[in-house]
Amino acid sequence: MKRSRAIIRNESLRKYIMPPVDMYETPDSYILFLDMPGVTKENLNIKVVGDSLVVRGKFDLPVSKGDEMLLNEIAKGEYVREFVLSGDIDRDKIDAKLTNGVLVLKLGKSEKSKEIEIKIE
Amino acid sequence: MLMRYSPFKEIEMLEREINKMFNDFFGNVGVTYEYPLIDMIDTNDAILVYAEIPGINKDDIKVKIHNDVLTISGERKEPELPEKANCIIREREFSKFMRSVRLPYPVDVNKVSAEYKDGILKITLPKKEEFKEKEIQVSVE
Fold it and tell me: Which of B44, B84, B92 sits opposite A35 (nearest CB)?
């Protein structure tokens, strides 16, 4: 007899997946890398709400009826991560690119907050 | 036992001792998991294996099957960054990886296919004919 693994399928218990992020600062921008495997461009949603930048993405693997899950390690569901935008970010200069499950966000700094080197006379 | 006194040896021994203490104390705290994470699905005619490997070059992944053991290996490299980039947050991991899983059924090695899309590697391993579930019609008279 086949013994199937118990998977909790309760919507209210579903948690969000927090994608790991790398953040870099360059003189004129911030660069963010988010690991969101399985998310396609259509299922990705990036929004600026007030002071925060919210990234959401949905992901699920197709399992048809009668299939048996032998290993179930990959977290499926919704990725959510929120960032607070500091004052030096120009909201019109936010670029997003999704390649191979990694979202790269480029947040441009506003003109007045860019690093300026002062020459010593 | 007589040994020539060597100050560096002393330091090395002390270092080893500290490392051991550190590992004994913190060794169990860190959550270790195998990389990459895998889903394995048994469908009627094939075994599907999904592996979560975001941000990797297709050519950097190797898939091997030997004695019904599937091995996925490769290297996750750091992205190229512009000059003068300072790291502020670092949560993602980069390294070489290898993981092997035993397959529940012998598979038809010549028909195995793999595709890499959106950071997920999907490997389709068709079962050998004799291991497929078959429905047999029994007529009762």
Answer: B92
Nearest to residue B113, comparing CAs of B34, B31, B33, B46?
B46
A36 touches chain B (CB under 8 A): yes
- pLDDT, one tens digit per residue, over B6-47 is 667 777 777 777 877 776 666 555 555 688 999 999 998 899
Count CB pairs under 8 A between chains A and B. 110
Give the whole-angstrom CA distance, residue B116 versus residue B123: 9
Q: ipTM of the predicted structure?
A: 0.78
Amino acid identity of residue A22, one-letter, is D
pLDDT of residue A62: 85
**Residue B100 tokens, joined:** 């092997």
Taking CA atoms, B57 is separated from B68, B73, B76, in Å, by 26, 12, 8
The average confidence (pLDDT) of chain A is 85
CA separation, residue B73 to residues B40, B97, B105 (Å): 17, 5, 21
Min CA distance, A55 vs chain B (Å)?
17
pLDDT confidence of residue A66: 85
pLDDT of residue A5: 39
Taking the C-alpha atoms of B48, B111, B56 and B75 in order, what is their torsion angle to the nearest 10 degrees?
Answer: 100
Note whether B87 contacts A22, CB cutoff 8 Å.
yes
